[in-house]
Amino acid sequence: MLRDRTDTRATLWRIASGQRGFFTAAQAREAGYSYQAQHYHAQRGNWILVDRGIYRFREFDSLPGSEDDHLVRWALWSRGRATVSHTTALSVHDLGTANPSEIHLTVPSGFRQKDSAVVLHHADLASDEIEERDGYRVTTPVRAIVECAAARLDQDVLDSAVAEALDRGLTTRRSLLHAAQQFGARAELGVERALREVT
After folding, report:
1. 19, 43, 93, 187: least buried by Cβ within 10 Å?
2. H or E element at residue 91
3. How many CA atoms lie within 13 A of 140 on its CB side?
């Protein structure tokens, strides 16, 4: 039975709407678009080719975007396995003065994809270390601070992130210290230094 074109578009639109207009070739295929139809829509400009096998509906591209729209693209690139982390996560949470020039993603230990546009960190994250966002996942404020401390982030940036997290009630001193101790000596030292700076 042939699928109605309107139904096919509506199905894909529903998927893309939860991903800020982005979708994969595989998702389009599941919605009912053949690879030939996908090529046609990209050629006509109905879909914008963002990366190999990743598209975005043209209508979303003309809407005012959010600063983190591009993070959805990386979630799709990783097939939903990457979590935004480290300084990129601090930026998402608007903590401190972090202004990363690179996108940091934490991926499971068996993850093999690579791209020069991202910095990959391998770790198996627990569910309580992750927050779901619209189209992507990000490490919690506590996890982001601790992993930045372990990575020897500039202490001034770490200090400002810790101060803001405490000020906004996102965590407590005790929770931060406990998480840092679980992460290792380097993380613990960075967090202790930051806590000493908080008045």
Report:
1. 43
2. helix 86-92
3. 13
Would the pLDDT of 2 be above 50? no
How many domains, in total, are found in the chain?
2
Tokens (6 digits) for 19:
């991903």
**Class of residue 85 by CB neighbours under 10 A (exposed 0-12, middle 13-18, buried 19+):** buried
Q: Which amino acid is at 154?
A: D
Per residue in 4-17, pLDDT (tens digit) is 567 889 999 999 98
Provide the residue range defining the domain that includes 133: 69-197
Helix 185-197, helix 173-183: angle, nearest 10: 160
> Which pLDDT tens digit goes with each residue over 104-137?
999 999 899 999 999 999 999 999 999 999 899 9
- Shared-domain flag, residues 44 and 74: no
